[in-house]
What does this fold into?
Amino acid sequence: YVSRLIGSATMPQSLQLQLLPSEQDAMRLRKRNMLGRLNLSLQFQLDDSETPLPENSWIVCRIILMTEVEFYFWEYTSKPSDVKFVSHWNELKVLKQLKTEIRTQLLTTTTGGDTSSSCSPPPPPRVYLSALSQIQARCNQFSNHQHVPPQRSPTGTAPPSGSSSLCEEDRDLVAFNDWWENQCSSAQSSSSSSGTGTGGGSGAHHHHATAAAVINLTDDTRDKEIIGRAMVAAKDIPSDSVVVAVPMSCVITPDTPLKESTGFEFRSIYQKLARSGTLQDDDLLMLWVIHDMNNNNSKWRPYWKILPHCYHLPYLWPYHELTSLEGAALLEDVVANKTNLLGWYDDLVRSVLSKEYSEAFPPELYTWENVLLARCIFDSRTFRINVNGKPTNCLVPFADMLNHHFSGNISNRRYCSESDCVVLEAMRDIPKGHEITMCYGGMSQYEALMNYGFLNQQTNNQQQQQQQRQEEEEQGAQGLLCCCDDVFQFQVAADVEDTVSEFVLELISSNGFSFTHYLPSNGTIPEPLKMVLRCCVLTQQDTQLLQDTDWEPTSTKPLSDDNEQRMLTALQETLTACLEAFPTTIQEDILSLQQNNTTTKPTTQQQEGDDPMQCASDEEEEEEELDTHSRLGLQYCLGQKQIISAALRNVALLQGA
It folds into this structure.
């Protein structure tokens, strides 16, 4: 993300930032234009002071690391000082990358570029140490931000090994922890005997495995019912240290089916399908998961047994439960994705694999229900790790027990070639007994529900929302998107006269505008939306005005009062239609949730590593599970409708002005 630091051992040093090479050219150009308009440079001098990183370096880094949706809201910001805070995910990336790059440059500077030199290095330039202190102070401030719910202190313990009075969940966890220790010990012995990985990373396999522990979470209000699992610090963990190092021998990658399958013939079938292109990497991994989860002799059997028995991803919701999402674009996407997956299952698995290779893909094992479950495991648990230069989706046992938190204390997950491990690193000090969490990303409610089956914690009370935003402003966090915020995505259409339709479409295309737009949770009308709609409602008279003035479509100023009123009217009609697509009102949803809360407990912030309610076998439990999905759907749609309603109020204010 941040290229590298350049300069000599003399001060002041300079910091050189670069736009992300992985982004599309159009996005990089837009970010470069924004930086130019705000008169911001990609290069900064590091002052020889207690705060060597200038404030503009943080602002530029935030812009560089914005996601496409984040950039949508910030592209036409008028002052650099407005970009004090974008989102918690963005700020986490800024802190992580600046810290990593400055530490790398510090090491390079103090060793003269030769990290293996036996000579005593010169004293490190204090400018780098001051910069690291400055970043760490921001890390601490970030983690203590009042807008973020405090790190929970998990209720639960690691079950004692050897006890005869353990429940099934505790026994499974004991077996997993024993398996994990054995795998780490075996990898450590193998590394030592081969003489590889001697150095800072490899000798820590078994040592770092004991820095964290997986425990069962219990609910005191439900007679200590086990409701999920979590990772906690087994000892005090200092900032920047490795919390967990998972040997690659434990990691499940697309290569695993080609090496670990039982029997030569079975393995050769996988290899043949992979070579022919019949199965892509992700397909191969997902199908192998079905096989291995049902293999009693699997090396990963203890890992499979502690995974959730049920998932709340909409993929698994029956169609009658999906009706709770009626009116939301999420429903259309769930049905479309499920239909595509069913087509893949019918055309490939059932029609080809289970017929031509029935030994490897028996029909009684590769059922539609098992394919859906494997899809949910793949979507909610895979890590995307760059292994030997290749981005790879993989399952990482132990590490995937991390629960989601917007103020997560894990700063990085990466593949370490020296130790041949996937490592997790601490963003800040983690006291013994505290939960270890990771931010899954800057997720909207759509992404959280679709990919993980939970909703981000959010406040629907308007007074509490206002109080939270006042706290953000006091701390300089004035972003449109914050940790509990959601977005509403929708499409606009060009409703113009036939005589100017081609001109309008060309105007929209030439300025890089899109018909897909977003609203933030406070209903603020973003500038890109206004710009597009001003073009969409152009008349013949407006086009003449365009030619007679120097007004540009990317201007934040109106073309004319008449055009502005038509733009607001079009927006009002579009949002009203979106709101009316939902079968229930906001008041009806709130009433339903209030009545539901008197009998059941809401499922928000359900964690990716959690073990939710067991699949019900009797009728009463089945009804409660169904209610969980309906409640999630209601909560999601309620949030979407509240965003639209807030935007309609803002439109009315603009019309009055």
Q: What stands out?
A: The first strand starts at residue 4 and ends at 6.
